[in-house]
């Protein structure tokens, strides 16, 4: 074991420890406070947890890449809504009328393409103008939301296709479609970030951009690709979720960016870039979903839920910090 | 000496990029709608921007110190609800200081967490956004808060009164901006804020108490939020729990539009004021043109990016970023 | 299932805390459930997020409650989740705003106000007043609608926009902008309207909160004689009517709303006949008849 | 060699920055197999010239030739593709990545599906590291390495590609002698392969040890090129600074006063143990040791940046607990830190504000900062330390490395401390200014300051110190007076050999 390995293991373990704490707490509290007869840690409930984590989780994987790369994307919620509209609306377009249920893959593809393009547009602006990603995506968070409303005014866009719903509700080996997508995305992004040149370069750029530039890494295209990936994943999340629900409100996906970022940061990704892990993000997503689910399970009311979620976020951060202090002789800066 | 004059133009542009963007924008709207540049309208815009603006003044300190404050919207709801509730219970004379004390206590808590415990400000203030909202709901029982005797209270002066022909919210905004502008640019404390945001380690090595500096930035921010809450409460003499919801991002947009860097260490109060006005005039201008709100969204997007782009392009002397 | 013992009823609300109507609804619901020994409830709030609401539906199904009440965040997106509940033999009662046609087969009943009718009634109130003032041939109206995307906002706007030309064909609706159910936002929108239009005779707001925001703007600008009509009579609106500043609204009580939903659920579980569409009445309220109504508590 | 064609030729390069003409028609060439030194004062334009060559800056005028072809270095990527390797003056590493990934940054070996070929990467890296004879392996995180070892990682990059020319911009600034000799071996290997080497350094002894020719710049202007064998330190210095330099050891003797600082049995975890020494007024005490010997940590403890785990500190005979730098400053202690970019400067701030930062609370006119007084302070130290900057308004980040260091020194001198601690004070500083700083340190001592000088340069320690504390691995091995110290016994002491064990 290399020096520091233990503290690192503890560090990446913090989120898992927190998840275990949550499970214990809600199981115990649930047995007193909940009127449900089924235990919180019921296997079915845990499978449901995985499924319910999918919408945020899939986007969070993309956010991990973008944040490791040293950027941030606040527009994912709006991209998610646009992709959902494209998905549902395109199924009713007259040109696809002859396709029957084959319109489904076409609509999926369209939605994913649009998401990817919107992500790439953010990336292109960041690259070419040099404006900070936070500002660019803060702007497009508004702009993309405006585009959402242009589609259908303030009305929801709906198309309930029961074939699609059945497909989305299907289970394979006991796991729902959404769960499979979440697991697959986690796997692929993990591979991308730890095993490929592109992923390692993303770390290098986020860690020390000047060094990456000096080493001849093409920083701009890398950033654009990563924005395209998060756009794709936001669209994928929409595709997975709206295939099942069939209708999108123009303000759906609002505040998703904040939840996603919270999950990613809880999972140990540095806000300034250069460090972070996909597995950690997975833990962060599960931790948040568990918290929401558990608070509902024990019957907390709205104001309590808000209060508790807020305080717990801060508490996790505090614990994480305590685990990371190197000792008394540490430099006091 | 052609190069020199070009350089001079460049450096003027670099310093005033955002102002020029602002001017261009005002002229364009004035041509588009004759009502735009009337005294009434300007007052109306500045008055309704005052609340956002006062909050942005405080957030400017936080951002320059290298941190974020996403809790301002939720905290503003809190101050508004509290002062309205206390107005009828203990009277405005006591309600105002009591509300300030409570809001400052929240600011102190955040300042303690971010400054002294060195927790990441994005997550802390995100957490506080949610927690303070919960607190407000608990405090109000989720109900709207209204002053019973709306006609008979002098409390309305902060939001509705005017002095010397100028609406009081505008006066408060401008006076506070002048005061905080001096604090930031001329006092030792202001210097320390820049140093801490620019390089916290170097600031510590220079004997600056970084934690304390950050702490006071959040105190200033919460004092501004309390002031904004006061104006808000006084303006409508009644309020919902969600009155400030979502303002945090608008405030941040204004601060950034003014040219403060999220990395910390740069930005000025004057530029933030310009940023606030740009946002206010965009919203108002588009409304006057009768555009749908979603067109406003798209236009705001484009203007934010163009303004910031112009600003940094002028600074680096090149339109396109040098990133390969 | 036998209901000799307690009934477990789960509710997932749209977005508690966004306005006092929903909060009062939640409190009234809890109070009504506590008053009834036979009922136990799980009260959940979707925070306006469809995904969270669907997850809550799944959780309630998984917890095997006896009935689910849903205040939909989106009248169509929740249909598959409602179908799941009905497939699990859990009756679903929709409250406050209905779900779409395709989902009707899966629900036991809808209980709530009729928002389209509310919109039409507001149009009638406005029109009647114009006629009384004799300006029905040239009056100009602006509309401040609720949060874009919400069924309630859309239905009320639709009811108003459809009905107004029927009753007052010469009144023009010059512009509509959303006020997001938010008093402050509405005030800002109204300020711009006032600058832009020299002649505004009437303002229709999607609820009284926004209506009062608009009223504040008009007062600050010193523009008198504008007729304000809202919906969901909040206590601020009621007070403004008392003061003579605000003309009329639609009286709708969240307590009635909540109690009706709970009672419908109990009736369904007890096997009683319930109508599919269980509207509770939301009458017109104006300065003239307001003494017949008690001041809203929210 | 004289007949050979240069591999690389820069012709009439001009480069201006706002307010600064950094290069004014500079020409320069490198032969294959040659080590060509580039010298000049701080801010003379050396790094800028190399950045032009490396594609980081585009010249305003002038041309670059490789062989007979005119080339354009549009960016670092092109420069690299053309066989130019640039080892930067400031560390340019990604701390969260491994040594191997850093060495091959931008050119990780690939397998199918864009995967990183880890086996090849590790093998190649370990081969290079073996050549460099360092104590870490390919998978170590760069952030866990000391500054010196990080510098070695930078140097390792020179060995990864088939370089035509390698630029070393002050590679030895933070290296110890052992590492330096490894570096020189690497350079002579490259030389043997016909690679052209450009070597920037302020250390004369290195220049005369390894280079073939020397080109000198002054204020962005070309001063001439000489064969190293045909010149000497004195004339090079004269070329650089335009005057002669007095390099004699400062023998000024003055009264040594009372004990200003006494440290008794001080320990700080594993960083250092059982440290005892004293520094008197009027005395300069040098601290010499290998990197990692714990000298910086002692300085940081005295400056309130670390809590000692045991032991006592006395200032003027009074036991004190120094809780923070602010506390240390009020007790009259100044610390010029080791890492100027990270710890010394706020790069985005202007020169004046950086210089007066520690005393900003004291320079007041009413509630405001007295800007006039600040400018006066800045002007005083700009003149005294010969800081090259167009005005106090310039951002410190735009100054050359050496001038940045002078700002840090000025900042702490202007505090008029009673105990001045300087950690590697002349890292990256040109010969002229270095001797000025040495003189200054002596003069401060003469004024009654107590001065601690931490340095990894033996000549420097020998030159300025009245006494020398030799450290090894967190412990004091021996304390020498200036009469008894020799290079040999000093080297023995810092290598962990006790005085009584020595021959
Ligand atoms: N990006 C920049 N913007 C403005 N001025 C710059 C910039 N980079 C360098 N300069 C200026 O150009 C001049 C030459 O700097 P350079 O870094 O080349 O010096 P140097 O010879 O390497 O000095 P040192 O020995 O101190 O490293 C200096 O006056 C410096 O302030
Ligand atoms: N045992 C060690 N293993 C790894 N790194 C170490 C070790 N000891 C010290 N370091 C690191 O090496 C660097 C230099 O150490 P330190 O500051 O103690 O040396 P120093 O004697 O001050 O030498 P110098 O100032 O000349 O570099 C520091 O960054 C420190 O963290
Ligand atoms: Mg240099
Ligand atoms: Mg050191």
TrEMBL record, chain A:
The chain crosses the membrane at residues 12-33, 53-70, 77-96, 102-121, 133-152, 172-193, 224-243, 258-291, 298-319. The keyword Transport applies. Pfam families: BPD_transp_2. GO terms for molecular function: transmembrane transporter activity. One of its GO terms (cellular component) is plasma membrane. It is found in: Cell membrane. It is a multi-pass membrane protein. Its main location: membrane. Keywords: Cell inner membrane, Cell membrane, Membrane, Transmembrane, Transmembrane helix, Transport. Part of the ABC transporter complex LsrABCD involved in autoinducer 2 (AI-2) import. Probably responsible for the translocation of the substrate across the membrane. The complex is composed of two ATP-binding proteins (LsrA), two transmembrane proteins (LsrC and LsrD) and a solute-binding protein (LsrB). This is Autoinducer 2 import system permease protein LsrD. It comes from Palleronia pontilimi.
Automatic annotation (TrEMBL), chain B:
GO terms for molecular function: transmembrane transporter activity. It is a multi-pass membrane protein. The chain crosses the membrane at residues 12-32, 44-63, 93-115, 122-142, 162-184, 213-231, 251-279, 286-310. GO terms for cellular component: plasma membrane. The keyword Cell membrane applies. Its main location: membrane. It comes from the Bacteria. It is found in: Cell membrane. Keywords: Cell inner membrane, Cell membrane, Membrane, Transmembrane, Transmembrane helix, Transport. This is ABC transporter permease. It comes from Palleronia pontilimi.
UniProtKB/TrEMBL annotation, chain D:
GO terms for molecular function: ATP binding; ATP hydrolysis activity. Its main location: membrane. Residues 8-244, 254-498 form the ABC transporter domain. GO terms for cellular component: plasma membrane. Keywords: ATP-binding, Cell membrane, Membrane, Nucleotide-binding, Repeat, Sugar transport, Translocase, Transport. It is a peripheral membrane protein. This is Sugar ABC transporter ATP-binding protein. It is found in: Cell membrane. The keyword Ligase does not apply. It comes from the Bacteria. The keyword Glycosyltransferase does not apply. SMART domains: AAA. InterPro entries: AAA+_ATPase (IPR003593), ABC_carbohydrate_import_ATPase (IPR050107), ABC_transporter-like_ATP-bd (IPR003439), ABC_transporter-like_CS (IPR017871), P-loop_NTPase (IPR027417).
């Amino acid at each position: 074991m290399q020096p520091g390995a233990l503290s690192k293991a503890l560090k990446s373990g913090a989120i898992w420890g927190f998840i275990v704490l949550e499970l214990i707490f809600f199981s115990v509290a649930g047995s007193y406070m909940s009127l449900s007869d089924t235990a919180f840690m019921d296997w079915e409930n845990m499978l449901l947890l995985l499924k319910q984590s999918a919408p945020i989780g899939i986007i969070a994987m993309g956010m991990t890449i973008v944040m490791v790369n040293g950027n941030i994307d606040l527009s994912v919620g709006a991209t998610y809504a646009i992709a959902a509209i494209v998905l549902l609306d395109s199924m009713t377009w007259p040109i696809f009328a002859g396709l029957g249920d084959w319109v489904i893959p076409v609509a999926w593809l369209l939605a994913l393409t649009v998401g990817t393009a919107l992500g790439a547009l953010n990336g292109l602006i960041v690259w070419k103008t040099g404006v900070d990603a936070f500002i660019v995506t803060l702007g497009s968070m508004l702009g993309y939301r405006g585009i959402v409303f242009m589609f259908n005014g303030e009305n929801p866009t709906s198309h309930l296709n029961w074939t699609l719903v059945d497909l989305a509700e299907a289970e394979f080996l006991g796991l729902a479609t959404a769960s499979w997508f979440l697991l697959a995305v986690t796997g692929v992004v993990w591979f991308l970030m730890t095993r490929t040149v592109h992923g390692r370069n993303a770390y290098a750029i986020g860690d020390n951009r000047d060094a990456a530039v000096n080493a001849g890494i093409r920083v701009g295209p890398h950033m654009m690709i990563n924005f395209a990936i998060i756009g794709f994943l936001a669209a994928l999340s929409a595709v997975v979720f709206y295939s099942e629900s069939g209708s999108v409100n123009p303000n759906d996906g609002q505040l998703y960016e904040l939840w996603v970022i919270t999950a990613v940061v809880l999972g140990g990704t540095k806000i300034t870039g250069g460090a972070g892990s996909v597995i950690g993000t997975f833990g962060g997503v599960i931790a948040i979903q568990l918290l929401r689910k558990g608070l509902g399970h024990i019957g907390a009311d709205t104001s309590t839920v808000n209060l508790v979620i807020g305080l717990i976020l801060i508490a996790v951060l505090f614990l994480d910090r305590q685990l990371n202090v190197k000792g008394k002789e540490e430099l006091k800066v | 000496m052609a190069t020199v004059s070009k350089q001079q133009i460049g450096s003027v542009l670099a310093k005033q990029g955002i102002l020029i963007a602002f001017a261009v924008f005002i002229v364009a709207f004035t041509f588009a709608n004759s009502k735009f540049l009337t005294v009434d309208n300007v007052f109306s815009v500045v008055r309704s921007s005052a609340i956002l603006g006062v909050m942005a003044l405080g957030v400017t300190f936080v951002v320059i110190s290298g941190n974020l404050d996403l809790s301002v919207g939720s905290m503003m709801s809190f101050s508004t609800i509290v002062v309205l509730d206390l107005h009828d219970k203990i009277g405005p004379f006591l309600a105002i200081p009591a509300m300030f004390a409570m809001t400052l206590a929240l600011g102190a808590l955040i300042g303690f967490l971010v400054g002294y415990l060195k927790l990441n400000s994005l997550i802390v203030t995100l957490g506080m956004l949610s927690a303070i909202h919960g607190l407000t709901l608990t405090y109000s029982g989720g109900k709207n808060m209204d002053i019973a005797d709306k006609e008979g209270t002098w409390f309305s002066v902060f939001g509705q009164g005017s002095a010397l022909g100028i609406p009081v919210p505008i006066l408060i905004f401008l006076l506070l901006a002048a005061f905080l502008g001096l604090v930031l640019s001329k006092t030792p404390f202001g210097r320390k804020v820049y140093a801490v945001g620019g390089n916290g380690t170097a600031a510590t090595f220079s004997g600056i108490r970084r934690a304390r500096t950050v702490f006071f930035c959040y105190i200033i921010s919460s004092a501004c939020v309390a002031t904004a809450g006061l104006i808000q409460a006084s303006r409508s003499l009644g309020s919902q729990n969600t009155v400030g919801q979502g303002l945090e991002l608008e405030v941040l947009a204004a601060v950034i539009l003014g040219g403060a860097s999220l990395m910390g260490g740069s930005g000025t109060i004057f530029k933030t004021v310009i940023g606030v006005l740009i946002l206010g005039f965009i919203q108002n201008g588009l409304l006057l043109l009768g555009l749908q709100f979603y067109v406003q969204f798209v236009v705001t997007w484009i203007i934010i990016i163009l303004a910031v782009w112009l600003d940094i392009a002028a600074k680096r002397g090149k339109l396109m970023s040098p990133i390969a | 299932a036998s209901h000799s013992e307690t009934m477990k009823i789960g509710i997932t609300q749209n977005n508690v805390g966004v306005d006092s109507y929903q909060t009062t609804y939640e409190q009234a619901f809890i109070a009504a459930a506590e008053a009834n020994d036979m009922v136990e409830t799980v009260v959940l709030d979707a925070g306006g997020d469809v995904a969270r609401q669907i997850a809550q539906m799944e959780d309630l199904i998984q917890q095997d409650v006896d009935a689910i009440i849903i205040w939909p965040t989106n009248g169509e997106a929740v249909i598959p989740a409602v179908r799941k509940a009905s497939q699990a033999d859990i009756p679903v009662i929709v409250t406050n705003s209905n779900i779409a046609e395709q989902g009707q087969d899966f629900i036991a009943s809808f209980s709530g106000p009729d928002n389209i009718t509310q919109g039409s009634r507001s149009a009638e109130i406005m029109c009647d007043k114009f006629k009384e003032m004799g300006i029905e041939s040239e009056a100009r109206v602006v509309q401040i609608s609720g949060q874009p995307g919400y069924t309630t906002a859309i239905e009320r706007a639709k009811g108003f926009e459809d009905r107004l030309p029927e009753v007052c064909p010469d009144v023009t609706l010059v512009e509509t902008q959303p006020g997001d159910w938010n008093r402050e936002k509405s005030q800002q929108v109204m300020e711009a309207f006032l600058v832009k239009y020299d002649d505004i005779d009437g303002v229709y707001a999607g609820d009284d909160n926004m209506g009062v925001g608009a009223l504040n703007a008009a007062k600050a600008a010193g523009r008198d004689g504008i007729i304000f009509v809202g919906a969901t009579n909040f206590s601020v609106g009621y007070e403004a009517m008392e003061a003579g500043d605000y003309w009329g609204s639609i009286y709708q009580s969240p307590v009635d709303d909540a109690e009706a939903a709970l009672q419908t659920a109990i009736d369904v579980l007890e096997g009683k006949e319930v109508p599919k569409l269980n509207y509770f009445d939301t009458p017109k309220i104006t300065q003239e008849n307001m003494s017949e109504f008690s001041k809203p508590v929210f | 060699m004289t007949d050979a064609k240069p591999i690389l030729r820069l012709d009439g390069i001009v480069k201006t920055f706002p307010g600064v003409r950094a290069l004014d028609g500079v020409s320069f060439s490198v032969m294959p197999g040659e080590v060509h030194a580039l010298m000049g004062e701080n801010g003379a334009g050396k790094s800028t010239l190399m950045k032009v060559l490396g594609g980081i800056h585009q010249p305003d005028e002038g041309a670059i030739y490789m062989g007979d072809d005119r080339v354009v270095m549009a960016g670092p990527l092109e420069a690299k593709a053309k066989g130019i390797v640039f080892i930067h003056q400031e560390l340019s590493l990604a701390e969260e990545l491994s040594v191997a990934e850093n060495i091959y940054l931008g050119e990780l070996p690939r397998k199918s599906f864009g995967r990183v070929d880890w086996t090849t990467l590790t093998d190649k890296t370990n081969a290079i590291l073996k050549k460099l004879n360092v104590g870490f392996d390919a998978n170590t995180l760069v952030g866990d390495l000391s500054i010196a070892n990080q510098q070695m990682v930078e140097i390792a990059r020179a060995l990864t590609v088939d370089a035509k020319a390698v630029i070393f911009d002050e590679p030895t600034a933070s290296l110890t002698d052992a590492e330096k000799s490894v570096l020189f071996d690497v350079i002579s290997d490259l030389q043997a392969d016909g690679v052209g080497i450009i070597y920037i350094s302020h250390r004369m002894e290195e220049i005369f040890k390894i280079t073939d020719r020397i080109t000198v710049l002054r204020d962005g202007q070309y001063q001439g090129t000489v064969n190293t064998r045909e010149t000497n330190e004195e004339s090079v210095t004269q070329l650089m600074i335009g005057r002669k330099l007095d390099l004699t050891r400062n023998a000024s003797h003055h009264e040594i006063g009372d004990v200003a600082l006494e440290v008794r049995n001080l320990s700080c975890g594993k960083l250092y143990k059982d440290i005892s020494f004293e520094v008197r007024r009027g005395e300069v005490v040098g601290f010499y040791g290998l990197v990692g010997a714990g000298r910086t940590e002692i300085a940081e403890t005295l400056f309130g940046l670390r809590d000692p785990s045991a032991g006592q500190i006395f200032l003027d005979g009074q036991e004190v607990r120094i809780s923070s730098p602010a506390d240390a400053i009020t007790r009259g202690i100044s610390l010029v830190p080791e890492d100027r970019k990270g710890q010394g400067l706020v790069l985005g701030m202007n020169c004046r504000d950086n210089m007066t930062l520690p005393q900003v609370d004291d320079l007041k006119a009413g509630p405001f900062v007295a800007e006039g007084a600040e400018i006066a302070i800045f002007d005083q130290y700009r003149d005294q330390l010969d800081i090259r900057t167009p005005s106090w308004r310039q951002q410190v980040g735009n100054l050359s490395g050496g001038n940045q260091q002078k700002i840090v020194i000025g900042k702490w001198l202007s505090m008029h401390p009673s105990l001045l601690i300087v950690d590697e004070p002349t890292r990256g500083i040109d010969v002229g200014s270095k001797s000025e700083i040495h003189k200054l340190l002596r003069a401060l001592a003469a004024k009654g300051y107590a001065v601690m000088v931490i340095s990894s340069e033996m000549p420097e320690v020998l030159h300025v110190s009245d006494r020398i504390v030799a450290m090894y691995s967190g412990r004091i091995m021996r304390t020498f007076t200036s009469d008894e110290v020799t290079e040999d016994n000093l080297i023995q002491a810092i290598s962990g050999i006790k005085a009584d064990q020595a021959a």
